[in-house]
Amino acid sequence: MLFFEILKSILYGIVEGITEWLPISSTGHLILVEDWLPFAFSKDPEFLSEFWEMFQVVIQLGAILAVVVLFWQKLWPFSSRKTGEEKRGTWVLWSKVIVASLPAAFAGIVLDKLLEVVSGKDIDGWLYNSIVVAVALIVYGVAFIFIEKRNRSREAKISSIEQLTYKNALLIGAFQALSIVPGTSRSGSTILGSMLIGISRTAAAEFSFFMAIPVMLGASGIKALGFVSWVMEHSVTVPVEAWLTLFIGCLVSFLVSMAAIRFLMDFVKKHSFAPFGVYRIVLGVIVLLLFLVR
Predict the structure, then answer these.
(1) Of the residues 66, 70, 82, 117, which has the fewest C-beta atoms closer than 10 A?
(2) Secondary structure of residue 111 in the 3-state scheme
(3) pLDDT per residue as tens digits for the range 126-140
């Protein structure tokens, strides 16, 4: 039994590592995989539900670590290999990342709690379902195709992240906040928003990676604390299998993310995002059909 649970966690890690960075929605893919291969290391369905809600967010920590490792020299402001001007540039980059994170933090914490108080359900409670995910996949897929077609004859106004202004960062952050709707894809929202305001594909993808660090760390921390709180409140003993699958999922997510990020950075230098748009539409139709069949 443990062997199969480990295989599932490896599969989830692969899916997370690929889909977190490509603009194709990790949520949409995880819904499909979890529907076919749910965890079964406990006989308590409520525990498995709570664990899965935490697991699918916390395995993003592996993906975040891949960004830090790949872009360490660019992200670390105390590097002895940097000049004073380069160190100042790194701090400026981080300040723009923080500004870009504010809209998502507001939507994910303030609005989420406000909605829960008013309606009794948080944003996930209202929106986390196959219909919403399928529609978001299809709408954003169409948007990618349309924007790439529109930009075909246009020159990007901003070709590197150093050229981004704080206003640009805040606008991109507003698009990132839209990813609170399941199926939109965090990277998909930020890249789409960046391209709309005239940022090149390469700069859009790179800044999207950096923006993920504070947002995903925050989301992972909140979900982990929520799970621990639920476990303590219900006096539940977490089986060793649960921690093992979580660790393996994070590790695999990290390794696969290393390859996925390199692939995307090479891909956008020569190709458009239109193929991802087509893929999103096909996936959206599959999720919708799955819902209708069920």
Answers:
(1) 117
(2) helix
(3) 777 788 889 999 999
Token code pair at residue 36: 């076919």
C-alpha distances in Å from residue 84, one per residue of 56, 64, 79, 89: 40, 27, 10, 9
pLDDT band of 153, cuts 50, 70, 90:
confident
Contacts of 265 (CB under 8 A, 6+ apart): 202, 205, 206
Model confidence over 198-247: pLDDT tens digits? Answer: 999 999 999 999 999 998 898 899 899 999 999 999 999 999 999 999 99
Strand partners, 199: 158
Phi/psi at 154 (nearest 5 deg)? -115, 145
CB atoms within 10 A of CB 121: 12
Tokens 């992200």, located at residue: 75
Number of domains forming the structure of the chain: 1
Residues spanned by the domain of 141: 2-293
3-state secondary structure of 199: strand
CA distance 205 to 119: 36
Which residue stretches of the chain are H helix?
Answer: 2-19, 26-36, 45-58, 60-70, 72-75, 84-105, 112-119, 123-127, 130-151, 166-177, 186-196, 201-233, 240-267, 274-293
Whole-Å CA distances, 292 to 130, 134, 209: 9, 11, 35
Do residues 121 and 115 make contact, with C-beta atoms less than 8 angstroms apart? yes
Give which of 186, 249, 209, 190 is closest to 17, Cα–Cα: 249
Query: Which tokens go with 64?
Result: 């975040």
This prediction has a pTM of 0.90
- Collapsing DSSP states into helix, strand and coil, what is residue 265? helix
pLDDT at 107: 84
